Automatic annotation (TrEMBL):
<keyword id="KW-0378">Hydrolase</keyword>
<protein>
    <submittedName>
        <fullName>Family 1 glycosylhydrolase</fullName>
    </submittedName>
</protein>
<keyword id="KW-0326">Glycosidase</keyword>
<dbReference type="InterPro" id="IPR017853">
    <property type="entry name" value="GH"/>
</dbReference>
<dbReference type="InterPro" id="IPR001360">
    <property type="entry name" value="Glyco_hydro_1"/>
</dbReference>
<comment type="similarity">
    <text>Belongs to the glycosyl hydrolase 1 family.</text>
</comment>
<dbReference type="Pfam" id="PF00232">
    <property type="entry name" value="Glyco_hydro_1"/>
</dbReference>
């Protein structure tokens, strides 16, 4: 689909969403007794954040939840994906829930429901309470149980109105970037010593899913980040390196959920995961849908040395986003990935695209941002989703990252992903051209669903 063309009829019936996460938009971090998280600790490390910024006030959303709910409703979204930070609810990572914080999220839920938008919260978008990290964080099995307790506290308060939940956002990024190489909090550089965090996160998801269901949840899942891995050259060495990367980024996190087993790590000379009896059964039975975030393919070559057997290299010939060669743009790889996932897992549950979007260099202030690059990126990926649906992949929902320009983790305020421009000094929100494009796409696909239903 080019931006001007009519949407494919395969999109009729698809649900539409947009996403944000708490640290990236909220500000007011210590308001209402909010506790310290690993991101407060990471921010204090000199040089950790590219522009030296903090996440204060970001979009000031903690004080302006009505504004965000209005923008979500103005798009005509079916659902809005936002996150609830563990360290606000349990400032010390244990014990009863912090009432003021729970009141706040209860209000966010009501603001959305009042405007006809279904709230779809994520319980962990990378903000581990520092107190839990101090006791091992995701390296400790006990964290899975603590996460289950936290999920129960949130569900107890919101479960009367919230039926759809994501537990974890992108456990692969936490393992690879957070614990293996240190590019995200908690900034550890354990290389393959990070692998136990993969299992403990999946176990935490299973514990949380059980708690949410016991409070009446209708649909629970987590959201994995997937990439389509391309070998740089058609050689055995590069294909092998691509296979290792595919295993670590994608299969390590998808196969236990979808097949009930881990890929063979020992065959690659890697240590076994700390799996206890019953863990895999709990993980395998734990999802009602498969959440998948997609941004870009990854090109991989055999390593020229060092402890890691692959190098991530630029994708030849591909245009790039504001991140440069790290983020090549190839929408067809989303289609290829979805079809491959269905081929590998014929019993694939409904798929939800939990994030897709791009940053591009944009002015800090402008009356109106004509973000044609973003519209082309999104239109290309929506077309890829339509093609996958036509090929029989059960995609039910598509989510744009992000509703708002926001604070992009270690990249600070240097990357703008929003459908809405945010002035980080005044908090003023100004919809970009992509906001209007997405609103129109949603309206057109709804009109198609109505005519399909009538015919
Ligand atoms: C994360 C978001 C992030 C986006 C763009 C995803 O991996 O879930 O929090 O802002 O990518 O980098």
């Amino acid at each position: 689909m080019t931006p001007a063309s009519a949407p494919s009829s395969a999109l009729a019936g698809l649900r539409w969403s947009a996403a944000t996460s708490a640290l990236q938009i909220e500000g007011s971090r210590s308001a209402d007794g909010g506790g310290r998280s690993i991101w407060d600790d990471y921010l204090a490390v000199p040089g950790a954040i590219r522009d030296g910024s903090t996440a204060e006030p970001a979009c000031d959303s903690y004080r302006r939840p009505e504004d965000d709910a209005e923008l979500a409703a103005g798009l005509g979204l079916d659902r809005y994906r936002f996150s609830i930070p563990w360290a606000r609810v349990q400032p010390d990572g244990a014990g009863v829930g912090n009432r003021a914080a729970l009141d706040h999220y209860s209000r966010v839920v009501d603001l959305l429901l009042d405007r006809g938008v279904t709230p779809f919260p994520t319980l962990f978008h990378w903000e581990m309470p520092s107190a839990v990290e101090a006791e091992g964080g995701w390296l400790s099995r006990d964290t899975a149980e603590r996460f289950g307790d936290y999920a129960a506290i949130v569900a107890e308060r919101l479960g009367d109105r919230v039926a759809h939940w994501y537990t974890l956002n992108e456990p692969a990024m936490t393992t690879l970037q957070g614990y293996a190489v240190g590019a995200l909090a908690p900034g550890k550089q354990l290389l393959f010593g990070a692998l136990p965090t993969a299992h403990h996160q999946l176990l935490a998801h299973a514990r949380a899913a059980a708690a949410l269901r016991s409070h009446g949840a209708a649909a629970v899942g987590l959201v994995n980040n997937h990439t389509w891995v391309l070998p740089l050259h058609d050689t055995d060495e590069d294909r092998r390196a691509a296979g290792v990367y595919d295993l670590l980024h994608n299969r390590l996190f998808s196969e236990p959920l979808l097949d009930g087993s881990y890929p063979d790590l020992e065959a690659l000379g890697l240590p076994p995961l700390p799996v206890a009896e019953g863990d895999l059964a709990a993980i395998h039975g734990s999802i009602d849908f498969y959440g998948l975030n997609f941004y870009n393919p990854t090109t991989v070559a055999a390593a020229t040395g060092g402890p890691i057997p692959f190098d991530i290299v630029p994708t030849p010939g591909a245009p790039v986003t504001g991140f440069g060669p790290e983020w090549p743009i190839m929408p067809s790889t989303l289609r290829d990935l979805l079809i491959d996932l269905r081929d590998r897992h014929p019993q694939l549950p409904p798929v939800i695209i939990g994030e897709n979007g791009a940053s591009f260099p944009e002015p800090d202030r402008a009356a109106r941002i004509e973000d044609t690059d973003r519209i082309a990126y999104l239109a290309g990926h929506v077309s890829a989703v339509a093609e996958a649906i036509e090929a029989g992949v059960p995609v039910e929902e598509y989510t744009v990252w992000s509703l708002l320009d926001n604070w992009e983790w270690a990249d600070g305020y240097t990357q703008r992903f929003g459908l809405v421009h945010v002035d980080f000094e005044t908090g003023e929100r100004t919809p970009k051209a992509s906001y209007d494009w997405y609103r129109d796409l949603i309206a057109e696909s709804r009109a198609m669903s109505t005519s399909v239903a009538r015919s």
